[in-house]
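User: Predict the complex.
Assistant: Input components as received:
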Amino acid sequence: KAGVTQTPRYLIKTRGQQVTLSCSPISGHRSVSWYQQTPGQGLQFLFEYFSETQRNKGNFPGRFSGRQFSNSRSEMNVSTLELGDSALYLCASSLEATGIAEAFFGQGTRLTVV
Amino acid sequence: GNSVTQMEGPVTLSEEAFLTINCTYTATGYPSLFWYVQYPGEGLQLLLKATKADDKGSNKGFEATYRKETTSFHLEKGSVQVSDSAVYFCALSGGDSGNTPLVFGKGTRLSVIA
């Protein structure tokens, strides 16, 4: 079966712009989580959605937001981009809430802010 | 809150050498413990997991034992191959905090030379 699909794979944006990243989970998975990966901070949790409801939220400013649709697909949005938002953004899907069931990761979207 | 500490890298080994990557955690109760691997340009893949004390997770020749008394989950492999070159992440979820997102260590880069 198809894995977790993230689009786009690469993105270059200018400071001050906004960006939307997309994640299609494995069919049947109801939980989608987002992580930011940077060389300095490592992997940091952004938020988790389960059946269209945000279950958990990490310690990121309000510029970072997300949502999940009825088909479990998820999007995350970053507004007013800053240079420090340059990172690999990873999406993970799981059958149930993360931690209970195995999380499957997508290949990520590499965002570069210039 | 929950946290994971793993040995800093990079680690460089010759093919067929023994590998140990140390991982210790801070959490109350009995969290689930994981090792994820990230190959260049890819997302994270679950390598192995353990969900209760004294459990041993194993996969592809890698092993890790859940040690509650030392709050550790060290990754070992008896004979590494060039194809094992990747970044390895120790992670945990759950414990007395309930269903929590994955918390990752900083990652350890392993390079295996022929």
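The mean pLDDT of chain B is 93.
Let me know if you want any component modeled separately.
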